[in-house]
Amino acid sequence: MNIDTTERLSDHLVSRREFVKLGSGAVAMLADGTLTKRAFAGRKDRKPKPGNILLIYTDQQHIDTIAAGGCRHVRTPALDRLKTNGVSFTQSYSANPVCSPARSAVFTGRTSCETSVYKNGIPIRSDIPNIGQWFSQHTDYETFYAGKWHLPRTYTSNIPGFEVVNTGIGGFGYLCDTAMSRACKGFIKNRSKSKPFLLVASFMQPHDICEWLRLNMNNPGKLRYPELAGELPGLPDNFQFDKNEPQSTKKRRLGNEPFKGNWDEEHWRYYRWSYYRHIEHLDAEIGRILSALEDRGYIRDTLIVLTSDHGEGMGHHQMVRKSSFYDEAARVPLLFSWPGHIVENKTDAIHLASGLDMVPTLCDYAGIKSPASMRGASLRTILEGDDSERRDYIVSEGNTNTGRMLRTQNFKYIKYVDDPVEQLFDMTNDPGETKNLAADSHHVSALAAHRKLLASHESRLDVPRDVPHTEFWRARG
After folding, report:
1. Do residues 424 and 437 make contact, with C-beta atoms less than 8 angstroms apart?
2. Structure confidence at residue 47 (pLDDT)
3. Phi, psi angles (nearest 5°) of residue 451
4. 52-386, superfamily in CATH?
């Protein structure tokens, strides 16, 4: 059969030019009748790629800090805009609720024990590429970074795979975030449109709450600003907690400012009010970057993603800060926005998501394969409206590789190194994690199933032997 004959068979067949483009592979396709217009379209009309990608990365952001998401204590027009224009995941978890370990997972798609970043201030192991390096090698996106890095240095002009737009100017968000957002604005408004870009805008806020806690540790016995009394948010429903906890959790609680400073209920509420003000500062700086995208005509052609390294205790379980597997520290905001391409104004409370999903998702949108051994998965089909697939579980790791949290659709299991106390929570009926069911005879099978899942997960990891407690977790796998 020659090409001229093929062209006359049906108007569903490919043209001479298309046939030639397909090359030798077209012969086999022609033989079994699959070389139709539809088959060719599947090869030619690939999913669209965003003109640009903006990853907004915050530090220590509690998941319930967006007015459009139902938080009554903040005004967040920029975050509201992202949520309204896209998809927000409410079951999104940090891969490790500590700064550097979480960042290593987000930027590589590998667990923090695999990247060797098992605690703050350690670089990613050299044979694992970060997203900037991978995009530089495999796409035409130019890669840029602004703000906090923390792998290992907090602020640096030397980030592998990225050209640094702005390093930040110190450890306080109220200073460095303003400088960083202005630098991003200048970058966006003055950049040539000849090439697509991947820009990471990494904020310090609302991490400044840590400094607030230090400065306000001691309870003065009365409200510092009496005029705020009517504005203070109430205590969370799970302010109390099940005392059957691992020692690591108890020690962290007692070591934080509220217990050292002998806080009363009013001081707890004042802290919560203050945290929301840090969120509003963050929102204003995010708004500056979004306005620059809009002014430059980029907003509808840019995939915007927002997430955080970890959450914030916010008084739940009488905890503050991070390094806990309770949802308040372990869950993080995760928002995607790309008008016309991603479902809009959708709150996804069904799918489990992880910081480990970032690299596979961005690679999917860029039209490239992910690096080897990804521990997360692309969220693209979910973002574009397909809710059919559900993952069985996600895992978060603990600081210094001492703990693990395994979250399934209905339960959360927590285990620490050399601690006999395990935790098992029914997340459907007890989302506040107020009753530890690990010792409940009615949940023996659920506990055993979660132990088995965690062991299976651990057996697949490529962990350097110099990472602490590696042998403990390997033995379980």
Report:
1. yes
2. 85
3. -60, -45
4. Alkaline Phosphatase, subunit A (3.40.720.10)
